[in-house]
Every structure is written in C-alpha cells, then in structure tokens.
Amino acid sequence: MLLGEAVPDLQGRIDDVLGDGDPSDPLAATYLLLAVALMLPAALLAVRLAGRRSPGTLSSVTGRLRWPLLVRCLGAALVLMLSAMLVMLTVEDGWSDAAVTDRTLPFLALAVLVVPLQAAAEEYVFRGVLMQTVGAWLRHPAFAIVLPVALFTLGHDYDVLGLIDVTAFGLAAGWLTWRTGGLEAAIGLHVATNALIFAFGGLGLVDLAATDGTPGGLVASLAVTGLFTWLVRDWADAPSYVSAQRQP
C-alpha cells in the first residue's frame, strides 16, 4: 500500500474509534485527557533540561509539592463544588436526567484516575512554567498572574459565559499560586472541578459536550472560585507549612 493511501486509511480508523473527539464518549475523552496530561512530564523535563534546575521548583517555593496542603485544598474544593452542583441540579430540575449507563463506570474511572493528571498538567504549564517565565522577566507579580491567563482561556472552546468563567478561574489560580508560594491550591480547585464534572457526566447529569454556559452556572462557578480563594488564601502560612517553606 502506498503511503498516500495508508495515511488516510489510518486516519479513518482513528476517526472510527474517536468519532469527532466528542468528550461525551469515554474513549474519545480518555484520548483528549491523556493528550493534555502529557504536558506534565514535558513541563518537568523542560525545566530540568532547559532551565537546569530541579523540576520540584515548579511545584512550590520549597522545591517540592506540599502534599498535606494539596489534600486540604482538594477537600475544600470538592465540598464547595459538589455543594454548588447539587444546588444547581435542584434549582434547574436536572435530576430527571440521571441515569446509569454503560458509560457511567468509565467516566467515574476517568474522574479518579486520569482527570487529576490532566488538571495538574495544565497547572504546571500555565501556573508553573509560564508564570515563572514571565516572573523572571517582569518582576511585578501582576504580570506573571495575568499574562498566562490569555493562553489558558484561548485553550478552551466555550461561549462568552464559559470564557468568562475560565478567565476568572485562571486569575484566581494564578493569584493563589503567588499568594501560597505553590501550585497546590490551583491544582486542588482544578482537579475537584473537572473530576466532578466528569463524574456527573457519567451519570447523565452534565453534558460533557456542551460549549455554551448559562448565567446561573456562571454565577455558581464564580461563587465557588471566590469562596475557595478567600478560604485557602492563608493556608500555606499555617504552622504545619511554615517550617516546610523555610527549608532550602
């Protein structure tokens, strides 16, 4: 078979498996999530090879990921986001769409096993590599917080309401990264948000292929982001983290 014939044939087989890249299909969603997750090792490797420093310096000012802080932030984000989603489903009478299908278990597995890698990868790239790169050139933290948000927002195919939501999230995540001296808070909020969306999507309660936001959804999401930011802003200054931050 000629190469010119083989390539379209291979592409056709990929399209048969992945469809149109519809995130509501478990296999396509797995492919999309893993493609993003690959940015995580790429970011760590780039820092090691190009930056000639420990990849741990992307995680926090301590040179490592502060797991107790991450777990605490993740727990808070899960409580806030789950509460908001339950309220929205009740207000909008969305419970009638609930159903357990052959896609439920795959999406629950994705929410637990793959989504955390995808969400962490985005934070390591946008709040890690890009923030530190901008910060190395422009000393005022506002530049490092704001400038990467444009690329982060452009990477999401949503309508105006959705893009406002993503922009607000990016600004909050950037500010928390600067405020707490690490990625833990941003990762916690990102993982909680995406994991619950995929879990609820597997139960038919969220349309994973939707690109249009709603005013109510935007208000709820902004409220969660704001409350989370206010709640965890000083957690890295707690006694259990002070000693860790002072380590070289």
Model description:
The protein has one domain (10-241). 71% of the residues lie in helices and 0% in strands. The protein is built from eleven helices and no strands. The chain has helices spanning 3-18, 26-37, 39-49, 67-91, 104-113, 115-137, 141-154, 160-180, 184-202, 215-232, 239-245. It is globular. The relative contact order is 0.15.
Task: Give descriptors for this structure.
248 residues, disordered C terminus, mainly alpha
* Beta-strand percent range: under 5%
- Helix share, percent: over 70%
**Spatial extent as radius of gyration:** 19 Å
The secondary structure category is mainly alpha
- H/E series: HHHHHHHHHHH
Q: What's the structural domain tally?
A: 1
Mean pLDDT: 87
Point out poorly predicted stretches: 1-18, 238-248
Summed up, the helix count is 11
Q: Give a quick account of the main beta sheet: strands, pairing sense, barrel closure.
A: none
Shape: globular
Protein name: CPBP family intramembrane metalloprotease
Keywords: Hydrolase, Membrane, Metalloprotease, Protease, Transmembrane, Transmembrane helix
Pfam families: Rce1-like
GO biological process, one term: proteolysis
Give a quick rundown of the structure.
This protein has 248 residues and is mostly helical.
Furnish the topology, listing elements before pairings.
Blueprint: H1 3-18, H2 26-37, H3 39-49, H4 67-91, H5 104-113, H6 115-137, H7 141-154, H8 160-180, H9 184-202, H10 215-232, H11 239-245
